[in-house]
Design brief:
Length: 188
């Protein structure tokens, strides 16, 4: 937790997950942690209630397993404490298929929605990247979107062409002077 978590974006969630594992198996020797033991605790994760009184979903359980697996991978590969990761043999929980969803009335009235969807489709951008775009991120001369901070922490340039370029040029003419955000919230 001290050496790896500070480098991760979802450190808060992963810290809580690691603390759960620590409370369950933290007093055991590394050599005593087996795939069978982890499987037992996976079942416990699925069956017990959270602090909010609800059962954990299979997806959440898989996130708990993933953070523990990453910990064991570091212990094996970087620190040489183990020869193999015991989570390699633990099966993940089956997650339900994605849901089908339609826009509600309020969403369909959003004047920015079409531009947001076109940017997502044409450039493969994540929703968070799109929603945090500001006008300084757009280089109309070189036809680029510059993302200063991405999920993996690297700077990225995305070509801006076609319909996405047209829509952003139209928005630029209408943009609110009180904010640099391309897609400002209702509060602005």
């Amino acid at each position: 937790m001290a050496s790896i978590l500070p480098q991760k974006k979802k450190a808060k969630d992963q810290k809580a997950q690691l603390l759960w594992w620590k409370s369950q198996i933290g007093k055991r020797l590394l050599s005593d942690i087996t795939s069978a033991l982890i499987s037992e605790y996976k079942d416990k994760l699925l069956s017990e209630n959270t602090n909010r009184g609800k059962k954990r979903t299979p997806a959440t359980t898989n996130r708990y397993l993933a953070v523990l697996s990453h910990t064991f991978t570091i212990a094996c590969k970087e620190w040489g404490w183990l020869s193999d990761n015991p989570l390699r043999f633990v099966s993940k929980s089956k997650e339900p298929r994605g849901r089908v969803r339609f826009l509600d009335e309020e969403e369909s009235q959003n004047s920015y929605l079409y531009t947001i969807v076109i940017l997502a489709i044409s450039n493969g951008m994540r929703l968070g990247e799109i929603m945090n775009l500001s006008w300084p991120n757009i280089d109309f001369v070189h036809k680029l979107i510059i993302l200063e901070e991405t999920k993996n922490g690297e700077r990225r340039q995305i070509p801006l062409t076609g319909k996405a370029l047209e829509l952003l040029k139209d928005l630029k003419q209408k943009h609110l002077k009180c904010t640099n955000l391309i897609f400002p919230s209702k509060n602005l």
